[in-house]
Automatic annotation (TrEMBL):
The organism's place on the tree of life at top rank: Bacteria
Class of this enzyme: oxidoreductase
NCBIfam families (alphabetical): glycerol3P_GlpB (TIGR03378), PRK05329.1-1 (NF003718), PRK05329.1-2 (NF003719), PRK05329.1-3 (NF003720), PRK05329.1-4 (NF003721)
GO molecular function: glycerol-3-phosphate dehydrogenase (quinone) activity
Cofactor dependency: FMN
Summary of subunit composition and partner proteins: Composed of a catalytic GlpA/B dimer and of membrane bound GlpC.
Its job: Conversion of glycerol 3-phosphate to dihydroxyacetone. Uses fumarate or nitrate as electron acceptor.
PANTHER family: 4,4'-DIAPONEUROSPORENE OXYGENASE, PHYTOENE DESATURASE
Domain FAD-dependent oxidoreductase 2 FAD-binding positions: 4-404
Organism of origin: Serratia rhizosphaerae
Protein name: Anaerobic glycerol-3-phosphate dehydrogenase subunit B
Catalyses which reaction(s): a quinone + sn-glycerol 3-phosphate = dihydroxyacetone phosphate + a quinol
Length: 423
């Protein structure tokens, strides 16, 4: 099977890269065999929140020179500061074209309220999420924080106590009782955010939901709910706000994350509209090489029939998504056998202190400045690596996971198009 580009991995990195290439007329296939990190994510996208030395970052683009000094192997340092600035803009436009309304921009981080009631610096957040500028308090004096009766993946008391303590706001805690959810509630494994959203998004449920919120939270200036609403868009939330006449906002829940899934769906939908070929449930297994080129990619579902493309992009994610694996011999990239950043001694992979930056989070595929993957010390001619499968950065400590995925995807798409001329 012949494509212009084959992408391995259908998470944020792989989908955005295939999408950008499809927008420019390239015929792309995305082979992806599992759920992506988006199903577990907050829905907010981080660009750069902290330098490796622990210095907090307010303005991500201004911090890039310091990052390049402290982490020359970081994907942003490889791409270069001016590219990163241009690609961050491009990424925001790409998300808009997918119909995703996000708040924030790359010049200045903002703070999003977490399910624990703390605030965390980030780049872009869904409109539905409560946020503040870095130096401003929450704009309300009283908030109603409402859980859903029997729903265990969001505990309003957790957020309430830190919002009260750290933000000095009055927080009223309550639980929504909605008969429409009784059938789901009877089966705890079904009573998850996504299934709840499928019910609450139905227009015929909005009156009852608004009435229940009014009963519990009439006094509060704003209402925070678990993100169990708005699987496809903000229509349900807007209807609710109109009925209640006050801001109603969503906090992420435990996975599956409605806010993250919405992002995933929007990217996927636009890719399919543009003619991208998705191969869900398929797994890339091995490749053939001719010198510095990948000539064939074999997958589980296609057996002996290889996928062929002049360009390939590896976006298989990190250990979490099996894009990297570890065994007694060390860290491996299992499909192509690429070179990885790692540490020889297993004892050096982790720190005992659970909250300290963990070295293994920096492990991943080595690339050159064009993000071409390195194998046996040489950058391959036609295989790029992007997103969480790449090494040299710590998405958690540096708060840069989504930015590395999105910007890397666009960097590579740009490079492939420049190399290949017009489609
Ligand atoms: C639990 C979790 C939560 C996170 N939350 C946030 C957040 O809130 N904000 C943020 O900015 N960052 C967050 N991150 C960082 C995250 O890594 C990036 O934001 C980004 O989503 C990673 O995207 P990716 O496409 O590189 O990888 P992934 O999302 O991991 O996607 C890789 C995909 O490739 C597939 N795959 C792997 N190997 C193969 C193969 N051989 N063949 C076919 N398919 C394959 C996997 O099944 C998976 O679907 C989080 C990370 C994790 C692990």
């Amino acid at each position: 099977m012949q494509f212009d580009v084959v992408v391995i991995g259908g998470g944020l990195a792989g989908l955005s890269c295939a999408l950008r290439l499809s927008e420019q007329g390239r015929r792309c296939a995305v082979v992806s065999n599992g759920q992506s990190a988006l199903y577990f994510a907050s829905g907010s996208l981080d660009l750069l929140a902290q330098l490796p030395d622990g210095t907090p970052v307010a303005a991500p683009l201004d911090a890039l020179p310091a990052l390049a000094q402290q982490a020359p192997q970081h994907p942003y340092s490889l791409m270069g500061a001016s590219q990163v600035a241009a690609l961050a803009n491009e990424a925001q436009q790409l998300l808009q074209r997918c119909g995703l309304a996000m708040q924030g921009d790359s010049r200045m981080n903002h703070l999003r309220v977490t399910p624990l009631g703390t605030r965390r610096a980030t780049w872009l957040s869904p409109q539905a999420v409560p946020t503040t500028p870095l130096d401003a308090p929450l704009p309300w004096r009283s908030i109603a924080l409402l859980g859903i009766e029997g729903f265990l993946d969001f505990q309003p008391q957790l957020a309430a106590s830190s919002l009260q303590r750290q933000q000095g706001v009055d927080v009223l805690v309550g639980y929504l009782h909605l008969p429409a959810l009784d059938r789901l509630r009877n089966n705890p494994s079904e009573f998850r955010a996504v299934n709840i959203a499928r019910v609450l998004d139905m227009p015929e449920q909005h009156a009852a939901l608004a009435e229940e919120i009014r009963r519990l939270a009439d006094e509060a200036e704003a209402v925070f709910l678990p993100a169990c609403l708005g699987l496809e868009d903000d229509r349900a939330l807007q209807a609710l706000q109109q009925r209640l006449g006050k801001p109603v906002m969503l906090l992420p829940t435990l996975p599956p994350s409605v806010l993250g899934m919405r992002l995933h769906q929007a990217l996927r939908q636009r890719l399919v509209q543009l003619g991208g070929v998705l191969m869900p449930g398929d797994r890339a297994l091995r490749a053939e090489f001719d010198g510095g080129r990948v000539t064939a990619l074999y997958t589980r579902n296609h057996g002996d029939i290889p996928l062929r493309a002049p360009q390939l992009v590896l976006a298989g994610g990190s250990f979490f998504s099996n894009g990297l694996s570890s065994d007694i011999n060390g860290i491996r990239e299992p499909v192509f056998g690429l070179d990885v950043y790692d540490r020889a001694e297993r004892a050096d992979w982790c720190q005992r202190d659970l909250f300290a930056p963990q070295p293994y989070l920096q492990f991943g595929v080595r690339t050159d400045a064009q993000l071409r993957a390195v194998r046996q010390g040489q950058a391959l001619d036609n295989l790029y690596a992007i997103g969480a499968v790449t090494g040299g950065y710590d998405p958690l400590q540096q708060g840069c996971g989504a930015g590395v995925s999105l910007l890397g995807a666009l960097h590579v798409a740009r490079h492939i198009v420049e190399q290949g001329g017009d489609a």
